[in-house]
Specification:
Bound molecules: NADP nicotinamide-adenine-dinucleotide phosphate
Shape: globular
Number of strands: 21
Helix content: 25-40%
Number of helices: 21
Strand content: 5-15%
Oligomer: single chain
CATH topology of the largest domain: FAD/NAD(P)-binding domain
Radius of gyration: 26 Å
Largest sheet: 5 strands, parallel
Length: about 650
């Protein structure tokens, strides 16, 4: 959708519809639209004292001011409807900074201007798209071939961009359809805890999300719809698992060996984009007797709808993001739910977590220009960069065991208060569920009625260590047998062996897993590895987000960078590009340096972001705006070119 696609003329025909819809929308976001359309900064001054944060529930404007904003915006929109003319552009410079800061309820630095100028534009401008500088020779372009491994969030994004650039590609997908993690994960209660109006492609907004935080089916349907809209299935070989990618130094091409429905085959490719994700190989715990259990047992990440748990005594091991959703979803129908918690997670309440999106708000998202983009910025700030200062260790902080800086401490107190409110001041559960490490050390969770569930009469929270699994249930180290008819392993994924079990053999026959030893994955910008020419990763090393964030944002940044690399290759008539070892090493050294000052390296924390040697390999130390900037241009000097 572009500015000219906002046809405002129908608004004049049904002003009552517009008025009702504005009533359902967020006043702070409407105010930002009003300033965008009028350039009148006075609205910012009036609203600012009443906006203490970017979330809708952090706006406390007097009702009279809200009504004034709605009325003024109504008049402006009707005027545009009756007197059609181009919409004003997104402001620049100080006015934009003023708007961003007012929207966030806190000063937003100048370095957001470039990114927001891009992100606030209507989507079809394809801000992260790629434009050829000189149109490539059609024959050369037609002979170029990219293999994308995976048709999940990242693979679809890469495919859409390659298609827009006219670069031929094939997607190889092990599942029978698209969707990746949102196809595979189907445990009870499965859903996202990043708000959907942010957790979606910037160029494929969905104004019809039923809830602010959608469940798995709706997310999967969104990805299915996007795949169909871009007609990607015809370029995809489903039921096809890649076993090996091997680079040939003589031809400077890759050979991909895969197994599909008709058996093994190979494909030649000039470049490979791995979009396999890191959270899809379930990790079953190494607990003695696991195989001896008499009843059914399942991992959340490999759920089978036939798994028989209703009316049964269910034992669930693990209380991370998956367990946190599966537990409350199963509790009402389980005869008994016994939860084994090794260490508690920090849990934050969110008033919108269960909220449905009102019809009027959906209408405004779709019809009022700039609303959806400003709303997206507010969510970006609330769930990503606005939290970043809370992740950095202040070396002078007075209570380093429990929190790491002032803001982090405030968040700790806030979450502790929430627990006390939910459980009661004297609840014996409080000691069990309060983490002894700083907030954000493990992935933060949104309260999915977890504490309410813990108080249900059919729930036990067991914090003693597990000694063994026996046919009748689970025995803890104190010798107690916790009887169970079914076991749910919510025990996470084998994240550290990135790209496994695929064999990736680069220049000179080097195996990437040997270079990574195999738990120490590194890559320049999380995307390219020296010695693996024309091999690109999405969601590669140190590109995950643990404090919130939005991996779709990350993927879009990576895909844009990859497209710029391919442009350099194709326009320059080169055969391959290979990141220079010194560039890679300097990047990794800086990532490690930054991580040593961040919460994930805190001595009291265990998390899946670190490898067995303690190095943080999974998550990004930077703000999203930094990563956006680093991936928004391609520096040829960082690479050596062949051919
Ligand atoms: P996870 O965060 O790795 O949690 C695994 C849980 O199992 C932890 O509580 C862990 O305890 C426990 N555990 C592991 N081995 C154990 C053992 N041997 N004995 C006892 N307990 C054991 O895995 P996850 O919950 O599947 O989440 C993984 C990631 O997927 C998340 O961090 C998130 O990025 C993503 N995810 C997102 C959503 C969402 O958006 N809502 C939902 C699901 C997953 P310790 O903490 O003590 O290690």
């Amino acid at each position: 959708m572009t500015d000219s696609d906002f046809d405002l003329r129908p608004l004049a025909a049904d002003p009552a519809r517009l008025r009702a819809a504005l009533d359902a929308a967020d006043p702070a976001t409407l105010m930002l639209v009003l300033v965008t359309l009028t350039g009148d900064a006075a609205w910012l001054d009036r609203a600012r004292p009443h906006i203490i944060g970017p979330s809708s529930y952090q706006e406390t404007m007097p009702e009279a001011l809200r009504a004034e904003i709605r009325a003024a915006l109504f008049d402006v929109l009707i005027d545009f409807a009756e007197n059609p003319r181009p919409l004003p552009a997104i402001p620049d410079g100080p006015l934009l900074v003023n708007m961003l800061s007012t929207a966030a309820g806190t000063p937003v630095p100048d370095d957001y201007v470039a990114m927001m100028q891009e992100d606030l534009r209507p989507a079809a401008i394809d801000p992260r798209g790629m434009v050829w500088r000189q149109l490539p020779d059609p024959a050369r372009l037609a002979a170029f071939h990219v293999v994308i491994i995976g048709a999940g969030v990242s693979g679809l994004c890469a495919a859409i961009r390659l298609q827009q650039a006219g670069i031929p590609f094939t997607i190889l997908e092990k599942n029978p359809t698209v969707g990746g993690t949102w196809f595979e994960n189907r445990y009870p209660g499965c859903g996202v805890d990043t708000p959907n109006h942010f957790y979606s492609y910037s160029f494929e907004p969905n104004h019809d999300w039923s809830h602010y935080f959608a469940k798995r089916d709706e997310l999967w349907n969104y990805l299915e719809t996007v795949a169909d809209r871009h007609d990607l299935r015809r370029r995809t070989r489903f039921g096809t698992e890649v076993a090996e990618c091997r680079f040939d130094d003589a031809s400077q091409r890759w050979t991909v060996t895969a197994r599909g429905p008709d058996g093994d085959f190979t494909l030649e490719a000039n470049a490979i984009i791995s979009a396999v994700g890191i959270l899809n190989r379930p990790k079953l715990p190494d607990i003695p007797g696991r195989e001896s259990f008499a009843g059914p047992a399942i991992h959340t990440g490999a759920w089978d709808e036939g798994f028989d748990w209703r009316g049964k005594r269910v034992a669930m091991i693990g209380t991370g993001a998956s367990g946190h959703q599966a537990g409350p979803a199963m509790q009402p129908e389980a005869a008994r739910l016994t939860i084994f918690q090794r260490s508690p997670h920090w849990v934050v309440p969110n008033p919108n977590y269960f909220g449905e999106v009102a019809d009027g708000k959906k209408w405004v998202l779709a019809h009022v220009p700039h609303y959806a983009r400003w709303y997206r910025f507010q969510l970006f700030w609330a769930f990503a960069d606005g939290l970043h200062p809370a992740l950095k260790i202040d070396p002078d902080w007075e209570d380093p065991a429990h929190s790491i800086n002032q803001q982090n401490h405030r968040h700790r107190l806030f979450m502790e208060r929430h627990m006390r409110r939910e459980l009661g001041e004297d609840s014996p559960l409080l000691a069990k569920v309060t983490p002894d490490y700083p907030p954000y050390g493990k992935r933060i969770l949104i309260d999915n009625d977890w504490f309410k569930m813990l108080q249900a009469p059919n729930v036990d929270l067991v914090t003693d260590g597990i000694d063994r699994i026996v046919p009748e249930g689970i025995v803890t180290v104190d010798g107690t047998l916790w009887p169970a008819d079914a076991i749910v392993f919510a025990t996470g994924f084998q994240a550290s062996k990135m790209l496994a079990p695929m064999r990736i053999i680069g220049s000179g026959g080097t195996d990437i897993h040997a270079v990574w030893k195999p738990d120490d994955a590194t890559a320049y910008l999380g995307t390219t590895m020296p010695g693996f020419p024309n091999f690109f990763m999405t969601m590669g090393p140190n590109t995950g987000l643990a404090h919130g964030g939005n991996v779709i944002f990350m993927t879009e940044c990576q895909v844009r960078y990859i497209l710029m690399a391919l442009r350099e290759l194709i326009e320059g008539g080169h055969d391959s590009l290979d990141v220079r070892p010194a560039v890679h090493d300097a990047y990794v050294a800086e990532v490690d340096r930054l991580h040593s000052g961040m919460v994930w390296s805190h001595g009291g924390v265990s998390n899946w972001y670190r490898n067995p040697a303690g190095r943080v390999f999974a998550v990004l130390p930077y703000r999203l705006v930094d990563y956006w900037r680093m991936t928004s241009h391609f520096e040829p000097a960082d690479y050596s070119f062949a051919g």
